[in-house]
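Hey,
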Amino acid sequence: MTKFTRYLSGVAIAALTATASYAAETLTISSWAGPTHGINSMLFPKLIEMIETASGGEVTGEIKYGLAPPPAQMDLILDGAADIAWIFHGYTPGRFVTTKLIELPGFEGNAEAASVADWRVYKAMFEKLNEHKGVKVIAMMTHGVGQIHTSKDVKALGDLNGLKTRLGGGVVTDVGAELGLIGIQVPAPKVYETLSSGAADAVAMPVEGRKSFKLTEVAKNLYEMPGGFYRGSFAIIMSEEKWNSLSPEVQAKLESDVFGETLSRLAGQTWDTIDAEGRAETEAAGDNSIREASAEDIAAFAAITDKIKAKILAEVAATGVDAQAAYDMIKAEMAKETK
């Protein structure tokens, strides 16, 4: 090999080394649901794509599973073990109060409308309370309206009384108490096991769970309340340390093109899509049934809704914000999105 050839080889190696040193930074996205769940198969891949586009290829992401149980996701981010995660507020009672407002039954609109309204009211009225202290909130979202899925046939609202029911936490816990449900708290990934073992008779979940968590096999009866019994409140959060390590230019692009209302809307759209899939799965199952609440039961639940609404408004007001104004804002923003 001549000196010139050796020189060219050295230049090539140096070029490859330089290229490697500029490889995209990879954000670790922690998820506690299975790979086939819509959040992991639809939302997060789209989020990664959006991050790559907005950052000009400087930043990407990778989904990792099993890093921590669902209630520990926020602590995972605080400890620096992951960069992005999604949390269900009801899994950590007492840590979040204002997030219960969007969970109330009675709001009209789908998950997309609710998620957008949730982000707007969070930015306008709740962010200053710093309930997500130590992390950066990059989206707020709700799942589709929650219904009751049972292993026993339920013909009327009163039939729910006494059923051992998995309740995720938050407002659904209050709803369950009013309906006479015997609450069992287990994370969503444990629902199938809990029902199949007979440890629970029912579960409160959005309709997407009929596919995502195979409820068509262990809770063959879907009892629906028009407008739902509740909604579930989530946030997508990011490590502040990781955020601060990004360049100002990348931060600006992520804020303008990816995070906030944009990601909240996309998350809501994802829930709406997988809700439709869950319904289709139920309708296709020959041994599943869907029963809608009667006019009498709708009226009875409306009275329960009023009672729970008063309780949650008082809890939110105790934080120092105008709870009624926040409620009215959610209702108005959802109406805008539903037109």
